[in-house]
Task: inverse folding
């Protein structure tokens, strides 16, 4: 059994995946045993399989089709043999030994899942932590992002003290570390979400049986592009997933 398993789901972003893996290998304590699964959903040909030749900790998997975000992460669920598991986006860069810090935090706090400080490339804290989702908050974020600023600051928990740990109802799923046993118990992601909202759903289920905490003791860089705000096809996926989420958890309007 390894200390931690890490899954990165790739989709036509070879350079980002390589950078993410390189940063993990360079910044993580060599004494922390790990397996990094690359699940390649890409349609385009690439050379990501060579990462398994470059690093013995890397396991390359190509399902043969696009399984979506949650399906890609679930693909390795039967292969996991670790105490902790990390869900990592390709656009993540480690600048310090974040995994050791987060594992220590989970051990001491008893939390089921933890999220670090998520920073942009300029070092600014991202609005990646949210209170329980409502129809109003989702509509504002997707269609009226320049309006209702006070409500948006409340929804994204900007009133919290980010120098201290606190419970989080929903953390954006670009970098989450949890107990593997809990991930397995929950059955991974709900694959009915092809993309978008599957992280909100997972966080909701984690908080039903355990807890998700923000850990202020370490930070990672997240090159957040928010594709659905630029692409109408992705926006349709986002809206469909939003409907699925509220149909499942209840239509909390406000």
Result:
């Amino acid at each position: 059994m390894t200390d931690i398993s890490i899954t990165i789901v790739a989709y036509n972003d070879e350079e980002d995946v390589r950078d993410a893996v390189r940063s993990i290998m360079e910044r993580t304590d060599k004494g922390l045993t790990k397996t990094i699964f690359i699940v390649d959903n890409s349609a385009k040909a690439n050379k990501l399989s060579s990462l398994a030749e470059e690093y013995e900790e890397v396991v390359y998997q190509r399902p043969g089709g696009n399984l979506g975000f949650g399906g890609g992460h679930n693909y390795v669920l039967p292969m996991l043999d670790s105490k902790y598991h990390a869900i990592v986006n390709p656009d993540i860069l480690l600048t310090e030994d974040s995994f050791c810090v987060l594992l220590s935090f989970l051990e001491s706090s008893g939390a089921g899942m933890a999220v670090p400080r998520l920073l942009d490339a300029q070092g600014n804290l991202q609005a990646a932590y949210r209170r329980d989702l409502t129809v109003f908050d989702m509509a504002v974020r997707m269609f009226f992002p320049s309006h209702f600023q006070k409500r948006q600051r409340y929804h994204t928990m900007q009133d919290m003290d980010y120098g201290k740990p606190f419970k989080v109802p929903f953390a954006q799923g670009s970098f989450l570390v949890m107990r593997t046993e809990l991930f397995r118990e929950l059955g991974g992601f709900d694959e009915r979400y092809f993309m978008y909202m599957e992280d909100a759903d997972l966080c909701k289920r984690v908080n039903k049986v355990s807890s998700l905490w923000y850990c202020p003791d370490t930070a990672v860089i997240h090159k957040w592009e928010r594709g659905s705000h630029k692409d109408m096809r992705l926006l349709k996926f986002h809206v469909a997933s939003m409907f699925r989420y509220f149909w499942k958890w209840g239509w909390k309007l406000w």
About this structure: The chain has one domain: 2-130+160-226. The radius of gyration is 17 Å.
